[in-house]
Amino acid sequence: MLERLASQSPHGKAAQTATAAAAASWRAVSGPGPHLEPSPRVLKLWRSAQAVCFDIDCTVAINDQLDLLAEFMGVGEKVAAITNSAMDGSMSLEDALEQRLAVINCTPADIQAFLKAHPPESRLTPGAKELIQQLQSRGIAVYLISGGFRELCLPICRALNVPPKQLFANRMNWQVDDDTGMPTKLVGFDLREPTGHQGGKPRAIAELRRMFPYETVVMVGDGITDLEAVQEGGGADLFIGFGGIVRRRVVEEAADWFVDSFEVLREALPRHRVAMIGSGAWACTAVKMIAENLAEEGRSDKFCRDVRMWVFEEEVEGRKLTELINERHENVKYMPGVQLGDNIIACADLAETVKDATILVFCSPHQFIHRIVKQLAGLVSKDAIAISLIKGMRVRPDGPQLISELIRKELGLDCSVLMGANIAGDIARDELSEATIADSVLANGQLLQEVFERPYFYTTLVPDVVGAEMCGTLKNIVALAAGFVEGLGFGPNTKAAIMRAGLNEMRRFAKALYPTVRDETFFESCGVADLIATCYGGRNRLVAKEFVAAVQGGKPESFAELEARLLGGQKLQGVLTSDEVQAILQRRGWERDYPLFTTVNRIVNEQLPPSSIVDYKAAAQVRVAAAADASADDLSRLALGAAAAAGGAA
Length: 650
Ligand SMILES: NC(=O)c1ccc[n+]([C@@H]2O[C@H](COP(=O)([O-])OP(=O)(O)OC[C@H]3O[C@@H](n4cnc5c(N)ncnc54)[C@H](O)[C@@H]3O)[C@@H](O)[C@H]2O)c1
Ligand SMILES: O=P(O)(O)OC[C@H](O)CO
Hints:
48% of the residues lie in helices and 14% in strands. The termini are far apart.
């Protein structure tokens, strides 16, 4: 109603002033309208809105509620007459509102009957509820700011799933029956509400901004009082005119963006685009889960359906691997027999893969990631978020660097990690598994859960990014030890002893390097669960076991040879990680404090026989800068001791 008075009256003083001021000052910013397409600046504001305020009458609701109530009470014409007489400027908005209420003169029972005759659901503008739902699902606060009355607006508010405390509207004043205490007679409205006055909407928004630190607030409405909401200090940052019910020329010309349907606003909301950087066994399994999620009904509002996956291009069956993946939706080399999803697009070009991506998933073997990240510099959006699935770390002259740190530093992105007991092939067959997502920004973690969680893949959020990543990295060394033990023919007691010692060293080492690491992280999937899975079923364990078999068979093979022979192009992380961790232990003089890590490293570098794993406490005390440096006595003592323990296996 306020809009109608303000915009229809060519003479009303208050209305005239508001119209002229609103339109003139807005044009000064955005140039003459109508703006039926949003400018880049307007689109950016809409997409970065933290709060969106909607007018009710003729915006989210198809009619002016007071007019409708007047008609219902049989005084439609009389109320229209007051509206018209107010248009000559002889009456303020407040007086006009007061007089119309006096004519309507309804009781609470009349309002109930009115709401029954005109249920709120039947009065919603098409698309309003869907738009509001989508804003809310993105964490954007939605408010309704109306010059109408709370008694009539609340049902609309509920029908739109907007919490009543997020409604700003006028309140009717009621005379109360002395005997029953019940409201009986309408006696005007509460003038203390900002919405009952000219300039009330910007004041309501300023009030909101005092309570919440919203950086960007958008006002959507059909009238001058909505347009006005951006004019005053503390008001909205953007006004979107809505012409789906009534089209007001002044509003159309002055709005920075004028739309006829909420669908247009919905379409313009940002959608997340996920890109996978990597295409090995785990990368394929992870991207399959993502693709399943994004193809599900109802996800297209928030996520683009297609996922681009960067592939280190190679020839397979005489064809480019990318071509094969795009044709068969299967990575025949790294995850044969598993359908990845028709919404995965394999790309050999990194820039094309990450173009417009808002969620970057990093999953390549850790030895390649530095080069990949360097190539990505300048290609990724600064607003994107990253998540690393990579288990491994870098060692630089100035110390260790986790992959999440590398991504954060080189690309300037917030980087979460996903770590856990996740053997790729099993999850690719939809076997139940779980993972830990560690994030430093809770909202990012929740979004990432939406991307990864499947009915067969549970995720838990923790705040300890470094702890989770250290777990994923270090367990690969312990898995080698478990493989040695298995290859030597020892049973579960010995493996459990090695795993316990390994977990202990993982925790101590992680905390020694990064004191913020939390003990409880080691009880998550990324900790003890991953250790168990890897020590019983992983590639590091398998290759370490075969290493022992080759030694015992008298035909020793290096880890590189075994990797090539056994893994079909997949990459082992444990040996490299062992060398990287050992470099840190050596530099800090900690080798003897981490006897299991040290012994594993000496075995993989062929400075000690595999059998020394079951004598790791002593083996780590032996001084072996290189195999040649180890005293023959030391080595034979260790080998003999282990052989005896393993029943002659060494
Ligand atoms: N496989 C698993 O079960 C599993 C589970 C959890 C975590 N991870 C971790 O995920 C990460 C990736 O492992 P994965 O299993 O997806 O890979 P993978 O070992 O199966 O495959 C190796 C990948 O490296 C690529 N590659 C080869 N040479 C390259 C080069 N020069 N530059 C860039 N890429 C090259 C290959 O194309 C292939 O995609 C690792 O850190 C691993 O520890 C693996
Ligand atoms: O096969 P691995 O030894 O590289 O381990 C795979 C995963 O990390 C297990 O969670």
